[in-house]
UniProtKB/TrEMBL annotation:
It comes from Ectobacillus ponti. InterPro entries: Bact_HTH_transcr_reg (IPR050679), Chorismate_lyase_/UTRA_dom_sf (IPR028978), TreR (IPR012770), Tscrpt_reg_HTH_GntR (IPR000524), UTRA (IPR011663), WH-like_DNA-bd_sf (IPR036388), WH_DNA-bd_sf (IPR036390). GO terms for molecular function: DNA binding; DNA-binding transcription factor activity. Residues 2-70 form the HTH gntR-type domain. This is Trehalose operon repressor. It comes from the Bacteria. GO terms for biological process: negative regulation of DNA-templated transcription. It holds the Pfam family GntR.
Length: 238
């Protein structure tokens, strides 16, 4: 037997999928929905929370719930894929904006992530990823100059991995990844389109060469409504 809040959720999903509720339109208020479905406010909130979790609406303070349903992109968590390769597979035409490229003496945090000494330097690269006119990813890359002595803005705007593998002949092998959900920083809000969003999904990647040398640390900061983070797992009984 379907619970009441799931029935309400499914009915609103149907209205969104059929176009009865248009993207960027406001849902009726909680009180209006309570009266319409003849139920409690708590039940309405459960339905709205599930709609938000499934990417159909976004709750915005002072406005209510806005329909945001759009196609989510599958992001393979376990793979080691460049943004350009991922975008090509999705059939999208993204725009990469190189916001920063600096030869930098890393702070203590980045030194710890890359196991560097105080004398070491890194390339500090900041790139904004735009799809469909919306700035939805901020990539912050730190590349050890021990392995990457030179890099240019044009390379960063195209494909860093293509340059590393084809020009520098670096055998990129594997990565360790960590996924966390955080509150957006001031930098996130300044560089990404985050109006109405109060969380951001951060994928932290530690990338290694075939000889197990750690040469790259990346924080890829994603707006939560545009991506579905997927993986494939095979059971191996212990």
């Amino acid at each position: 037997m379907t619970t009441k809040y799931l029935t309400i959720h499914n009915d609103i999903v149907h209205q969104i999928e059929t176009g009865e509720l248009q993207r960027n339109s406001l849902l009726p208020s909680e009180n209006e929905l309570k009266d319409r479905y003849n139920t409690s406010r708590e039940t309405i909130r459960k339905a709205l929370n599930l709609l938000a979790q499934n990417g159909y609406i976004q709750k915005v303070r002072g406005k209510g719930s806005i329909v945001i349903k759009s196609e989510k992109f599958n992001f393979p968590v376990s793979g080691l894929v460049s943004f350009k390769e991922l975008a090509d597979k999705m059939g999208q035409k993204p725009v990469t904006i190189v916001h920063g490229l600096d030869l930098w003496k890393p702070d203590e945090y980045i030194r710890q992530q890359l196991n560097l000494s105080v004398k070491d330097t890194v390339w500090k690269i900041s790139r904004i990823r735009e799809i469909g006119g919306e700035r939805i990813i901020l990539d912050k890359d730190y590349l050890s100059t021990k392995h990457v002595p030179e890099i240019t803005g044009d390379i960063c705007a195209s494909s860093i991995y293509q340059y590393l593998e084809q020009d520098l002949k670096l055998p990129i092998s594997f990565a360790k990844k960590e996924i966390v959900v955080e509150e957006p920083t001031d930098e996130d809000r300044a560089l990404l389109d985050l109006d109405g969003f109060y969380n951001i999904v951060v994928i932290k990647s530690y990338v290694y060469l075939e000889d197990a040398s750690l040469f790259q640390y990346t924080e890829s900061r994603h707006r939560p409504d545009k991506f579905r983070f997927v993986d494939f797992a095979r059971r191996n009984p212990v």
